[in-house]
Structures are given as structure tokens and as C-alpha cells.
Write a structure and sequence with these properties.
The complex is a heterodimer of chains A (116) and B (227). Chain A has 116 residues and is α/β, with parallel strands linked by helices. Chain A contains five helices and five strands; from the N terminus they run αββαβαβαβα. Helices cover 37% and strands 16% of the residues of chain A. The two termini of chain B are 27 Å apart. With 227 residues, chain B is α/β, with parallel strands linked by helices. In chain B, the strands form four sheets. A four-stranded mixed beta sheet of chain B has the order 1-2-3-6. In chain B, strands 4-5 form a two-stranded antiparallel ribbon. Classes of the chains: A alpha/beta (116), B alpha/beta (227). Chains A and B meet through helix 2 and helix 3 of A and helix 6 of B.
């Protein structure tokens, strides 16, 4: 599934610089607000759903080579975090709806927890 | 844990410096400071603040005015939920003898809307000491919730829980090895006092504690290991 499709269907706002989202393939999804769990549970090219906006999320996404982070409930990363994400090539997307709804929408689009 | 018993127990255990750090609340600090007047015990004002990310952080100060400023910020950022005494117990405010003064209605056990970085900045602007609490704990510990210690913040020290040795903590979490570690025991009952943090300082102030944690100007800090 391409990231531009997810952005369109879920009506997500890009917090980082716009780019060709159709060139980015998303293979799986992972949802947790505990960063230690994400570090061991999320997969490369996956999308991560969380309401945590702390700058550590950028390092976690860069470490795991995630396709994007969807930050829920309009949680707002500070400008330094967004700048760091742009530097590291981490895509930050925002939605007003909670984790549960976001995961449900992604599931309806056919996204699953693992790559197979 | 009424103020005179806290003071008496600390003195009996040979302590001469404690901090009072109630959860998201500083209302009972003054009572303990008053209860310790004339005794060989210094009581620092503080708070255990729960950040937006559910990380517990110890915020320590020299004066009640500094704590009061933090309290104002915390009160503005707690959700508007009343305490349920059946579930969470009483939230009493007492005087220095332990007598009832008031009951705090706002639920304190929950997280504030303040982010970890916002709390760090607020405590530093006020001149306080910022120490993430029981960082190795699964629940409310920095490492579980934020994955690692944010490298951009110059954090004074990290506190480890009572069930692990400093050597054990450094081995299990190599990323915390470079930080000064303290061990305060998350004391909720009189019998819980650990008293293992030993400072060699000129006076019991935040600036002296920071110097000791950094091993500056001949100040020293060591955990007297229980293991």
C-alpha cells in the first residue's frame, strides 16, 4: 500500500515537508505509546500509530526505518522535533482522531500487523 | 505518613536530608518542613510529577515559592477529574502535627498534560533539580515510556528503583551508565526509607547537590550499596 493512499483516505496532515508520498510503500502497521515496545515490535517500512509527540519518536522511527509516524489526537510535536524529523527523513503525519479509530481505518484499507 | 512521624523516622534512621515529593502535589511539604524545625533534618520541597508521556519525574527545589510556581503550572495541566476516594483513597492536606486541614478534590494520580521536555525546562528555569524517577521500572519509568534518555536535555541524574543495584542497572541499561544514579526507594511508608544516597556537600541546597552529582569542587556523591 502506498503512503499517499493512506494520507488521502485517513485525511492526514503532513507535519514534515511534503514529498512524493506515492513513492513510499507501507508494508505493515504497529500501534503503541510505549517507545520501548515500538523499538522491539515495529517493522521496517511500517507505519506507527501513537499519541506520543516527544522528540524521541523521531529517533525510534529512524532507527527502525519506518515509513511514517501517525500522531493521533492532535498531539503536537514541538518545532525542534519536526526539524529533526525533516533532517532524518522521518515523515510525521497528524490526525485529530484517537489511536483506536486510526488503526480501524488502516485495517479497513487492508493494512495488517505483519508483512505477510 | 504524618509529618512528625516522617521527621522522627528519618532522624532515627540517621538521615539528615530528605525531600517530600508527593504525586503532582506540593500541598503537604510545608507541614513537614515545619515539623522538622529545630531538628537535625533538612526537608527539601519537591514533587513527583507525571508527564504527558506517563513518565514520573522528581522535581526538587530550595524554596516553597519555587515549588508553588511549579504547582500552579501542574494545576493548570491536570485533567478536570475529581478524586474517587473508594478507588484512590483520601487526598488529605495536613498541618505539621498531622491534623486535618483540607481534602484535595482534584484527582492527582493521573498524568498532567505537560510533556517531559516542558517539565524539564520549567524546573530548570525555576532553578530546581530534575531527576526522572525509577527509570528502570516497567510502569511510569523513563526507559519503557520514552525508549531512552532524551540526549538533548542535560538531565542532572536518574533515579533507580529499590530492587536493583547501581551496577545491575548500569549493566542492564548501558544507555544510563553515563548519568549519575541516585536511589530513593519511592518511599510510601515509614518502613520504606532507604537512606543510601550520601552527599559530601557544604550545605543542603540544590546547587550543592548538583555539584556533588557532577563531582565538582570537591563535592562527592555515592550510593551506599545495599547489595
Amino acid at each position: 500500500m502506498q503512503l499517499d493512499q493512506i494520507i488521502k483516505q485517513l485525511n492526514l496532515k503532513a507535519l514534515t515537508e511534503p514529498q512524493d508520498f506515492s513513492a513510499i510503500t507501507v508494508d505493515s502497521g504497529y500501534c503503541s505509546d510505549l517507545l520501548s515496545c515500538v523499538m522491539t515490535g515495529a517493522e521496517p517500512n511500517g507505519v506507527w500509530i501513537t499519541l506520543i509527540a516527544h522528540s524521541n519518536i523521531v529517533a525510534v522511527a529512524a532507527l527502525l526505518d519506518l515509513a511514517a509516524i501517525i500522531i493521533t489526537e492532535d498531539a503536537q510535536p514541538d518545532p525542534d522535533t519536526i526539524e529533526k524529523a525533516n533532517e532524518k527523513g522521518v515523515i510525521l503525519l497528524s490526525t485529530p482522531v484517537p489511536n483506536f479509530t486510526t488503526v480501524g481505518q488502516l485495517w479497513n484499507l487492508g493494512l495488517r500487523a505483519t508483512q505477510q | 505518613m504524618i509529618p512528625p512521624l516522617i521527621v522522627q523516622t528519618a532522624i532515627t534512621k540517621g538521615l539528615n536530608l530528605i525531600a517530600i515529593t508527593d504525586h503532582n502535589a506540593g500541598d503537604n511539604v510545608q507541614a513537614v518542613i515545619k515539623a522538622a524545625e529545630g531538628e537535625s533534618l533538612t526537608v527539601l520541597p519537591g514533587m513527583e510529577l507525571q508527564t504527558q508521556e506517563d513518565v514520573h519525574v522528581l522535581c526538587l527545589f530550595d524554596t516553597l515559592d519555587q515549588l508553588s510556581e511549579l504547582q500552579t503550572l501542574v494545576d493548570k495541566n491536570l485533567p478536570d477529574i475529581k478524586n474517587n476516594i473508594d478507588y484512590f483513597g483520601e487526598q488529605f492536606i495536613v498541618d505539621q502535627t498531622g491534623d486535618f486541614l483540607a481534602r484535595k478534590d482534584q484527582l492527582l494520580i493521573t498524568a498532567t498534560r505537560l510533556s517531559f521536555d516542558q517539565v524539564f525546562n520549567a524546573v530548570k528555569v525555576l532553578g530546581g533539580l530534575f531527576i526522572p524517577a525509577h527509570v528502570n521500572r516497567q510502569l511510569f519509568g523513563l526507559i519503557t515510556h520514552l525508549g531512552f534518555v532524551p540526549p538533548d536535555l542535560s538531565i542532572d541524574a536518574l533515579e533507580i528503583s529499590r530492587h536493583i543495584s547501581p551496577e545491575g542497572a548500569r549493566k542492564e541499561f548501558p544507555q544510563i551508565a553515563a548519568y549519575p544514579l541516585i536511589q530513593s526507594g519511592d518511599v510510601h511508608f515509614l518502613e520504606d526509607f532507604l537512606g543510601v544516597n550520601q552527599f559530601k556537600i557544604a550545605e543542603p541546597t540544590i546547587s550543592e547537590l548538583i555539584m556533588a552529582l557532577r563531582a565538582e569542587a570537591n563535592r562527592q556523591f555515592v550510593i551506599k550499596s545495599r547489595f
